[in-house]
Write a structure and sequence with these properties.
Structural class: alpha/beta
Number of helices: 20
Strand content: 15-25%
Strand order of the largest sheet: 14-23-16-19-20-21
CATH topology of the largest domain: TIM Barrel
Shape: elongated
Distance between the termini: 92 Å
Largest sheet: 6 strands, antiparallel
CATH architecture of the largest domain: Alpha-Beta Barrel
CATH superfamily of the largest domain: Metal-dependent hydrolases
Number of strands: 23
Radius of gyration: 29 Å
Amino acid sequence: MLDYVIRSGTVVDGTGAPARQADVGLLDGVIVAVGRVEEHGVVELDADGMVVAPGVVDPHTHYDAQLFWDPSASPSNLHGVTTVIGGNCGFTLAPLEPGDADYLRRMMAKVEGMPLAALEHGVPWDWRSFGEYLHRLDGRLGVNAGFLVGHCALRRKVMGAARAAEVATDEEIAAMRRLLGESLAAGGLGFSSSQSRTHSDGEGQPVTSRFADRREMLAFCEEVGAHEGTTLEYITSGCLDTFSDDEISLMAEMSATARRPLNWNVLTVDSRAPEKVARQLEASDAAAAAGGRVVALTMPTLVPMNMSFLNHCALFLIPGWDSVMALPVPERMRELADPGVRHRLDELAHAESLDHWFAPLAALARSFWFFLPPVRWISDQMKLDQEFLADRRAVDHFGTSGGYASSLVALASPIRLAGDPEASTRSQTVSSFQEGGLASSLFQRVMMLLSCPFAIEGRTPLWWRWSTAATIAGVTLAASCLTLRGLAGWSSSRPSASLQAARSFRLPHLAIGQREHDDQPFDLRFRLPDHFTMTFEVMAEPAELSEIEMLGHKLGEPRELDPGRSAYRLWHRVKIIRASGHEQVEVDGQSRPAGSGPSRPATWLTIQTPAGRTTRLRDLELIW
């Protein structure tokens, strides 16, 4: 007698054979008969009018955390899925370094829309190695599950937070490769990575895998090739748009190097761009020619778009919206109820469509960044949010476009705005731009790219930088020198009327990264007047405020928060007033204790941030 017999179902066996009506018999958990089954079963099921098929294998899921509180992997199990593959897009919960659980939680909440509270309370986070993570799930699931080893966790464990945005050294690559090998030997199914512009961590910074170079990617592929039964999964910006030649070349070489298939997600069909499908499938042709195999994942339906202000979706990816959408839900709802906030978000959402020529000009600008002397100093000292600063609609919310461009040019230059006899040269330069009618959104964005290089999404290949720069660098630099020489001749010894009239300095958004063991404050090179009022908002956890200094004042602890929200990173309002040699500091409306600041008032606008952390400020305004 059999254990189970499924009677009279329409069998679709997955081999490509036509569907047929048949019985299916099972004994000891194994299918032992398909066709007309004469034996009876302990349990018999009537499947007449139903389809009987093997369980569906879902190769792209993010059940890495959910399986701890939902071992049935719902709702996938309700759709016939019996096997799920997690660890995709370079995002896994292991290997895990002590102290990094909160970073991984916030990253997963941002990139995959997982509820932060569920990640905090529904996952034990008591493992270190990839094998220990698998052991915590083994034997406790209602589905079959396998997991790829994620690129971000490997980089975080070996390179830490301080070097997350750097290209790995040979020693770091070797260490990550050993760690990947250990993880695969412990049961990892393969390696996954993302270099897509849409993936940022909980602090709004690009996920660390986006900074990996070709050398690092191929080293991982070599390690995957040393382990039987493994595979590759890769996400890049071209998966959403259209693959570039470089992306196709890298995917083909990754598969050929590993001697393993590589899958990417997701191939979509769009009647507005019928040629896109053929271009995307060129990656498979290139891989086959190189001896590899690239497989596109797709769906038999149109890709659905769920939009919600409550849960992570495409709305969270709109440039400039992160300051609102990253807030806890109650605060997010209060902000969205404000008509002024909704108006600003609406303008941000439509700003990009105004500048059709920005992308090619930005690529041209990026090609000769390394020729500009202040580039490396600026990139080491501060990280500006390029997307937020880029749109004219955004700067209009904080002040005039011309005034904001003037502040950025001064910020990127070693010339000081005040107390310096050469300041008039820079102010006259900006004034001439405005008076010449060149204060357009497009011009400002290109000018900011050249004067103050932002953390642009992606990196230009070296061959493009050198070939393009070799052609245009000489002409560009010569023209710049002649232009600046002429402007210097036009300047006078007194500040321009526009600078005198402004008597204010505004900066909408600023992110400062402090290296480990670096106790030097960040200097904005802005000489402070004797009397002023400065206001700004800083994003920080409660404990971090005591480590942040502004003009030598420790900001200390914020206002009392609800116990359930005390661990959130929130925006805190700070106000500093200087008058008659004395300074008063308020944080969230509460005055800091007298005598807690420096013995002498600061001369320059300086900020001290916690070592190894990134501090974000917004709406900084200095009025004197």
